[in-house]
Amino acid sequence: MHHLLDGTMLKNLLVALDGSACAEHAFDLALLLAKAESSEITACSVADPRQTYGVGAPTMIENELLQIDLYARKIVDEALAKAREAGVSTTGAVLEGVPALEILRYAKEIGAGAIILGTHRRSGLKRLFMGSVAEGVLRASEIPVITVRMEATLAPLTAEAVL
Description:
This protein is an alpha/beta fold. The chain has one domain: HUPs (Rossmann fold), CATH 3.40.50.620. 45% of the residues lie in helices and 20% in strands. The longest helix is centred in the middle third of the chain and has 29 residues. It is globular. The N and C termini lie close together (6 Å).
């Protein structure tokens, strides 16, 4: 039998985190995959400077940027702690810039075999106006992308589950 997922693809997983429940759900799936395949994970979060309002005193803007960076670091630190508890080898990175572009750039830099990220599965006008990091990554990625919806059921993986 052939694996649906290429084993080499699963050896180095990049998981993008934004602090949302669906990103945490995606990380849980990544931990299951990593345990099943003896893989390594890199957990990353992107501090997006576009989140600042861009008005006000420079010190206010600098403080907003610092808060965005601290939040991204907190997300990564929490993921690293969770991975340690699960016994999965995980490193962390905080990136800065436009999330989809930074995720793709970093995946290439570290030679990731696949990118895992949560998706809210927005549709219609909401998607058009808000944009989607997952969609941006999916459209431009040269490596496999695994998107995970909140509704996805996570069950312990067995050898038969990936055959």
